[in-house]
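Thread title: Can someone regenerate the structure for this chain?

I was given the following input by a collaborator and told the matching structure tokens would be attached. They weren't. Posting the sequence so someone can regenerate them.
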Amino acid sequence: MDQPIACIILRGTANDWYYLPFLMAFVVVGVVAGYWRFFLQWLNGIRGRDWTVVPAVVDIVSAVPQTDDRGHIIGYLATLTYFYRNPELQMGEYSRMFGEQEEAQTWTASYKGDTVMVHVDPHDLSRSVLRTEEL
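Best answer:
Regenerated them for you:
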């Protein structure tokens, strides 16, 4: 007879441990899905360190509440949207997660209107990355 995962974890008999890899995979997929944006941002930052550097202006800032599946606020996603010319007008974003709304709003407001240096992909001029070290 099939038993709930909670019973399997609590009892932990030899036959029931068969489900543990599936449970672990489910947890890993959930974590990766929640932080996928930050993983891609980090990966592009590594790849982008040798790309051409151009100035960009942070023009749009936002701090948006992030909720779990029950609607509880788990943090605030602070996003800086910047614009650069290379040679046409292009746009990019940099995001960071904060625990408190005021902290996220203060951080984003501190960059509004600032000029930052972004790394542009020489093979795709519409693709850019703002590295943490450049802030």
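The two ends are 57 Å apart (CA to CA).
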